[in-house]
Design a protein that fits this description.
It is built from ten helices and seven strands. With 245 residues, it is an alpha/beta fold. It has a single domain, classed as Vaccinia Virus protein VP39 (Rossmann fold, 3-Layer(aba) Sandwich). Strand 4, helix 5 and strand 5 form a beta-alpha-beta unit. Helix 1 packs parallel to helix 4.
Amino acid sequence: MNDKIIEVNRYDKRALSFLSKFEKKKKICLTLSAPYKYYFSLFKNLNRNSKILELGAGFGQNTAKLIKMNYDICATDISQVSVKVMKKTFKNYKNFSAKVADMERLPFKKQSFDIICSAGSLSYGDNELVMNEIFRVLKKGGTVIFVDSLNHNIIYKFNRYINYLKGKRSKSTLKRMPDIILIEKYFKKFGYGRVKFFGSITWFFPLLKLFLTNKIIYQFSNWLDKKLKIKKSAFKFVLILKKKN
């Protein structure tokens, strides 16, 4: 609970900064964009009449693209200030709503949504509670789409621990960071799923940027991921699930 309060305060502070300065949303760097491009591509072939629940939406960094795809989207976050920012940012869209919600106890009825998605928020809740809540509010035959960090590569794990020591993340997020075991639990729970991994050499990008362009690094990284058929060495993963009827 203490960690949850820490994270709420952290995101409230970030959202207040955004609200006061009216900052433009920063685009994801090209070298890190591959998993997010794939994540959004998965929505293109789904029914546009679907009702989407977005978990851990922050102040809408990834929400805009879904809104523009004309889905009916309800974006949620545990930070009240973040929700306030989203409501202000997307106030002109009739297909958008936002609600303060804890992923561990979602304030929605059973089978309320056709699609549930999340970009980088799975480690902010108890893994079992979050999985069960997603299953509960998703309709039968519904789809789940996640993009998140993977917790296997020792280099990335060490970097996250350093960020914890610097006060940039809470200890519980280190423990709850998704891993292969959690992904397999989701497969078993929902009945069908597939996963794609990205970024086996993301840790090497700072050095590569000294003598290569972002475009070349992006292309080389994607080629290497496919060539090596990476899994546990990945930085990010994209998961798609279907709830059994």
